[in-house]
Design brief:
With about 110 residues, the chain is of the alpha+beta class. About 25% of the residues lie in helices and about 35% in strands. A hairpin with a 7-residue loop joins strand 4 and strand 5.
Length: about 110
């Protein structure tokens, strides 16, 4: 499961109230474009309302990025947490040629 957070006053949150479709890429920064490798996704973002799921998502974030720890107690009312459901996933691998992607067959829920 993927999650992200943003401000309720952000353009992103405003856009998501009209259309839940998003696209995203996950990859490390590469100094040489021909070494880019990662994932590209078409997905849907849904506002997470479950306190247990929000707590779980934020706990995972704090493990990876401890510098966000202060948000745990001080500003939770000032953020929105979204759950991301991938719909189409492509593997990006520019080592096989600029712009090379392979579609990954993905069955949500399997």
């Amino acid at each position: 499961m993927l999650y992200f957070w943003c401000s309720p006053q952000s353009q992103k949150a405003d856009n998501l109230t009209r259309d839940a479709r998003i696209s995203l890429a996950i990859a490390d920064d590469a100094s040489d474009p021909m070494t880019i490798a990662g994932l590209s996704m078409a997905a849907e973002a849904e506002l997470e309302n479950s306190p247990a799921e929000i707590s779980k998502a934020l706990s995972l974030l704090y493990i990876k990025y401890p510098e966000y720890g202060p948000y745990r107690t001080s500003e939770l009312d000032e953020i929105l947490v979204y759950r991301v459901t991938p719909k189409v996933i492509s593997l990006i691998d520019y080592t096989k040629g600029f712009g090379h992607t392979d579609l990954i067959v993905f069955h949500p829920g399997d």
